[in-house]
User: Fold this.
Amino acid sequence: MTKEQDRARERRRWEKREKKLAERRAQSVRDRQAILAVLGVLVVVGGFVWLANFLTNRSDSAATPDTSATTSSEPTSDATTSATPTVTPTILAGCTQPPAAPGARTVSGQPDLAAAQGKTFVAAVKTTCGDITMELNGAAAPQAVASFLLLSKDSYYNDSPCHRLTGDEQGIWVLQCGDPTGTGGGAGPGYHFGVENVPANDAYPRGTVALARQQGDPNSNKDQFFLVYKDTTLPKSADGNGYTIFGTVTQGMDIVDKIAAAGINPNDKSSPLAPISILSVDVQPKA
Assistant:
């Protein structure tokens, strides 16, 4: 088998796996929304008969999975599940209990491309496990950096969980963050844009900061991003595009390593067993 055939096979396996995870995540989000909607009706109407009927038949009224939900490249994946948890997440030494996910957010306006073009920035990301510092490359990825600037300024990332961890089983090594709903299936900030600064060799070295997006849609870059903690190869998706690299972690990789070493939560086979959330992000021009 040629190298090109081998890569094509790996790409198909990757896309199949990501589609399945996206479907599971979307189903979970839809199920929760259906439950909340019906409970609202029960409050208005009242009566335990309605509640008993809902609990008996809710499985028949579950929404069809939405396969258009953001995937993590995305690297994106199933961050939550309706199954009863069997393992309690572990708060590691040096970490604090993450706050509740704030839920869907939007921002006013659009990213200012001119504010990022040709410039380098330093992002100080405060997390529940310590500070992570990233250098953002506005010369190579001005759209991505302009977006990150806007979202950080508007406190969009504040209190948001890093909802996905991958490892040896998936064959990619990333920690994914950026969705305020904490599910990986959030709608995003209200805008999207295309890919840029994609590595020709599909290589994403340790320390890379890149944007997650929906498989098959190169214009679905939004809010979610991932930190690569071990050299990773990400074959291009079916649309022929890879994933936008817009920065590098310069300090704090030990924090990501610590979260990765704790493993993936077996309850959902997607989120970190040791939770970590972004508390705030401050971005300044590099001196």
About this structure: Residues 3-61 form one domain. DSSP finds five helices and eleven strands in the chain. The chain has a mean pLDDT of 83.
